[in-house]
Specification:
Layout: H1 6-12, H2 15-29, E1 36-42, H3 55-58, H4 60-64, E2 70-76, H5 89-100, H6 104-108
Length: 109
């Protein structure tokens, strides 16, 4: 399975078709029991996302993988900048909860 839509571009000659095809393949091949965590940033209505990825694009996985268990975390404001999400303690706590069911209070200490 390809890792990026660009892997299909030469075959279908359209980035939009390539992205759709890749999404379809991922949805078909991912076990339905695989839990997913979407982390997205939203800095302002003017930006519409985290400065690199639109919120709409980030949340597209909810539609693509609608048969899989999905959890979503949206970080709003300045802390939601794409380049800051990996340094965000809320994101760290959320990932810990998702992966290991760690209570939030334990991660903050």
């Amino acid at each position: 399975m390809p890792l990026a839509a660009n892997d299909y571009t030469n075959k279908v000659k359209s980035q939009e078709k390539a992205t759709a095809k890749m999404s379809q393949l991922m949805a078909e091949n991912l076990p339905k029991s695989t839990a997913l965590l979407i982390v997205a940033g939203y800095t302002s209505q003017a930006v519409g996302g985290d400065g690199s990825v639109s919120l709409e694009s980030a949340l597209l996985a909810e539609e693509i993988f609608k048969k899989s268990p999905i959890q979503t975390q949206i970080i709003k404001g300045e802390a939601g900048l794409h380049s800051l999400l990996h340094e965000n303690s809320t994101v760290d706590c959320r990932i810990g909860q998702f992966l290991w069911s760690v209570p939030q209070t334990k991660l903050k200490n």
